[in-house]
Amino acid sequence: MADFLAGLIPLFIAELASATDEQINQARDAALEQIANHGDDLQFGGKHRRSSRTALARAFALLARAEGGVTALGSTRAPPSTRGAPA
User: Fold this and answer.
1) What is the pLDDT of residues 21-37, one digit of tens each?
2) CB-CB neighbours of 56 under 10 Å
3) What is the model's pTM?
């Protein structure tokens, strides 16, 4: 799963780079709903595993938009506009 997330999170960060606030809110709500309803499939497998894994990657990409980014899987992810910005 770590390799899957490490590969997909940067793609979602790039996809969300030009998103409007409304699009960000919609993506957040969709990821939250998917993870809340089918998060057990992430750990144990099931018919919603693929969509739950994608929702988790999108959630990390959304968190990366926060000031300072997000640290997960041993690295910090942040949108290009905040990399190297003073804390």
Assistant:
1) 999 999 999 999 999 99
2) 20
3) 0.78
